[in-house]
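TODO from last week: model Tr-type G domain-containing protein.
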Amino acid sequence: MCSIPSTSSSSLNVGILGHVDSGKTTLTRRIAEMGSTSAFDAASGIRKNTLDLGFSTMTSSSGRRLALIDCPGHSGLIRAVLAASTVFDMAIVVIDAIAGIQPQTAEHLFLVSKFCPSRLIIVLSKCDLAAEKNEKIIEETKRKIRKGLKAMHVDSEAPIVEMSLIDGVFKTEMLETLKSAIESRVFEPRRDAEGPLLIAIDHCFSVKGQGTVLTGTVLRGVLRLNSEIELSSLSERRRIKTLESWKQRVDDVASGERAAFLVSPSFDERRFSRCLSGAPGTLKSTKSVLATVDPIPFFRKSIASKSRCHVAVAFETLMAECVFLRDADTKFEQLDGLLAPCQITTSSGPIGTIEGAFGKSGKFRVTFHEKIDGLVKEKEEISLSMKKYHGDNRLVSYIPDL
């Protein structure tokens, strides 16, 4: 037995993201050196679309182990992606060269902007098909991608690697270019190895003749052989009989690393659901939480105080009543809701005025101070906010499509 096998320093967790059918799993197959839990669409059957989080691994040029997390691209599985994104150190976003940024691409890029905005690599897939249609498509898509990254406050200079992933058009030179881009984003992550054990358990399955196996990523502390763990979804404790990391037997697994462990006594896997677990007594239930929140700039509706919202914490999504507060010296001032500012601006200042509303649609006429060049959208970014009155005459704002 040994401690977790490492190549050089801590492993990095890399999310593989993108719209459904963009080529995420095909890319993962190309770069992975070893498959693990639910890797390469193990649960997708004949659908050919990833339905679960898939884990595999590769080694960077400098010898750093990378845990690849292949995330589903279907809109109905966004909660699984949201849960996985909390462990991302880096992200590879796969974008169809012809379709460009699609709805789930935008959602995934938003998660990247929150968890690893400066550690991003874009893979432009299906470049062979794009080139067959029009050689200018690829450059136009790349231009739009960089514009989108800037709007989402993600590194707009992130590497964009052109690839064709299917047999017959795939070239090893493409893979080497991608590996170089990955190496340029490798860094030494900060891990908490001293705190009490906390692990995000993502899969549970039975091994005939042995018992129940759990897999997950250690978020804090160290997972040790023969130690006791409290499974929050069962409210029960289990002892770790065997412990592995990437199919090697180990004595302990440190924070940030993947782990697979056999527990005793065993239990029916159908009783278990994904959850955070940890050292006995570490996780406690609560009825209220005080947290800092920021509005999503692309969300166009107002959120009233005391409204009920979905709150996602790791693998759990709960209904909660939200009360918005503002710091007022030593106390908090309760607000009516979470509101955004209302204005028409460019990077150079105001360009127009809002005149008035008509009808129940909430539309407004906008008068520009001077004639605007038809190509202005290509020359400078315009942020347009419009006002809308609700039935109770409260004034809120939203950002419409331009």
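Done. The first helix runs from residue 24 to 31.
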